[in-house]
Amino acid sequence: MKKIINTSKAPAPIGPYNQAVLIKDTLYISGQIPIDPSTGELVDGDIKAETKQSMENLRAILEEAGMTFEHVVKSSIFIKDMNQFAQINEVYGTYFDADTAPARETVEVANLPKFVNVEISMIAIR
């Protein structure tokens, strides 16, 4: 049986999906883009600021499900410009212990929702 996870501390979905779905002990988190949930506006700034906001949105969803970044087993990062990979990775890395970091792929794409530069999704297990 699936349980829908939603929190006002992360942006409301901009389409027909939920922030996350919990099935037994596995949490599937929808891709998060750099929207500030308090304003509903995109974060203005550089790719580091955008990545940080996306990660903070993910943190809020994890917390709503009673989890932390330590529970994350898989991440997917979608970026518009692979030249920004190092900056994204720098911010992303501050959220994980290098020894227990999750599996991950990073993919360059043509466009993302609202034409942002980064979107990150995760799978976590309790």
UniProtKB/TrEMBL annotation:
Q: List the GO molecular function terms.
A: deaminase activity
**Annotated Gene Ontology cellular component terms:** cytosol
Which one Pfam family would you cite for this protein? Answer: Ribonuc_L-PSP
Give the UniProt family note: Belongs to the RutC family.
Q: What is this protein called?
A: RidA family protein
